[in-house]
Each structure stands twice: as C-alpha cells, then as structure tokens.
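Key idea: predict the complex, not the pieces.
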Amino acid sequence: MVTGTQPNGWTDERVELLKKLWMEGLSASQIAGELGEGVTRNAVIGKVHRLKLSARAKPTNTTPRARPAPRQAPRRPSGPSLSAGVSSMAAAAKPRPSVMPRPQVMGATALAMSPQMEAELYVAPATQELFIPEDKRLSLLQLNEHTCKWPIGDPLSKDFYFCGQHSLETGPYCEFHSRRAYHQIDKKKR
DNA sequence: CCCTGATTCGC
DNA sequence: GCGAATCAGG
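Result:
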C-alpha cells in the first residue's frame, strides 16, 4: 500500500487535527481517543504544550495557576520497595453518616460531548436508599475486609446495622456507598 | 471516585 | 521531541 502511516510520531496531519480539535474545545482525552488508540491524553497535552498552544479559550483570565511547587524530589520508582501490607482492621471506620439522602445527579462521566448536549435532568427519588434484608444486615462484629462498612440507621438504635454488601478492593464500602462517600463531597476548599 | 489540564524529567 | 508519571484543581 501507499500508506506509510506510522502509529506514532506526529505527522502534519495529526498535528493539524490536534490543533483543530484543541481549539474547538475538546478535552485532551477526547482528542487522544480521536487520534488513535496509541495516543494517550498525556501525549496530546505534551504536544499541545510543545506547540505553544494551551490557552485555548481563556478570555479575561490570567490563569492564576498555583505556583509550580519546587518539587524536584525523585518521582521515579528507583528505590527499594518499602515493606508494608499489614492491613489490620483497627477501629471501625466512621464515615459521615450525617447526611444520607442525596439527590445525586449522575451521567457526569459522559465522554463524547456534543455541542448540543442537552442534559436530561431528572429528579431522582430522594428516599432512594439501599434496602438490606435482615438476613443480610451485619453488626459491627460481623464486619470483615470484604463487607461494606457503611452504617445504616441510628448507631444508638437497636436496628442499627451495616450495609454488608461485598465491598470494593479500593475502599471499605460497596460500589453504591463508595460513591456516596466520595462523589459530591467535593466542596470548595477554603 | 471520576475527571480535567500543567508540569517535570527520564528517555 | 516525546510522553509517562506526577501534581493540582474541579
């Protein structure tokens, strides 16, 4: 074939496409996905910077980027691996049982953003909380590394129990409560 | 947790 | 020049 397209290496075509998409406001990851599988989002960003691009749409904004931390410490894993792995369950993890009911809007992970992206917002049932059958409920002493430790109910009440669903490897909660614990907790810092 | 861009630095 | 790893904000 006459096509000598190299999987990697920034050809003029790709650079132009990169510029175009970047200027149009596409995110780096989206551009990377459009350019090809072999292109990562970091590659796109790196190229953008080298091309002196960035900026993109920055009206009346001086980009008060935080001072580039003078961190020149070794970030490469070239040292002795530290020994660790003693994961002993200390005190029971206490999340924030203060606020339970959350409207929670989802669908924020949409990748393909169309210019005419009309989000269909719908009101989720506020009382939507996981119902755990009695035979699935766990007391404090029944918790282990694989049980969701999300407390349900009044800790002082007799019918207080823990979720008990299979917890994720990445956290002490099941998928449902893991999102509850992190997602949307993000508030403005200071 | 997800995502975003920004920066650094070994290759 | 390239991009993974990392950082920092949302």
